[in-house]
Amino acid sequence: MSPFNVFMIGVGGQGIGLLSEVLIRAADAAGLAVVGCDTHGLAQRGGTVVSHLRIGASAHSPLIAEGAANLFLALERREALRAMRSMLRDSGTMAWYDASWQPLDVRLGRAPEVSRQAIEAEAARRGVALHRVHVRDLEDPFALPAGHGRPHGRADAGGEHRSVQGDLRGMRCRLARPC
Q1: pLDDT tens-digit map of 39-81
Q2: Cα separation of 145 and 106, whole Å?
Q3: Residue 10, class by beta-carbon neighbours within 10 Å (0-12 exposed, 13-18 middle, 19+ buried)?
Q4: For the chain, which residues make up each domain, given as ranges?
Q5: Contact 71/89 with Cβ under 8 angstroms?
Q6: Residues with pLDDT less than 50, the chain
Q7: How far apart are CA 10 and CA 76, in angstroms?
Q8: CATH code for 4-176?
Q9: By C-alpha distance, which of 15, 8, 11, 12 is closest to 37?
């Protein structure tokens, strides 16, 4: 049986290393063979951070070949589009956090911002199951009541928001059981 390949990408400081560690420990606790590796690059300067995770007894190398990821987790819009094109297999699954850490060329007006619509169009073209997570979809357990005077740290660029709470509960259950 082929391994289940999970590719994760984000920008330094977003928590890709922690996310990878949590998934590795969950797979290990479920009794699954798991191998993985992280690549940090210029993470401390806002650079790309990637993690490869392969689950299953037939996974001997931690690196995922291009176009072979079954599941792709992205924590930044630009990195999501770039890595979806190279790492995710057609008809794979992608969960992405709709956040943008604008690189200098975007801030200076030399390059366009990557839009949510561009990601959705690429996913539709390739038959990718897409799950968008936005800051408004996440409950803040430390939020103070309205009118308290302290900002809640929430932002919204407008548009539709889809709750993925049910999907995340299902994912947690699937990770806890051997495949």
Answers
A1: 866 666 667 889 999 999 998 889 999 999 999 999 988 889 9
A2: 36
A3: buried
A4: 4-176
A5: no
A6: 147-179
A7: 5
A8: 3.40.920
A9: 8
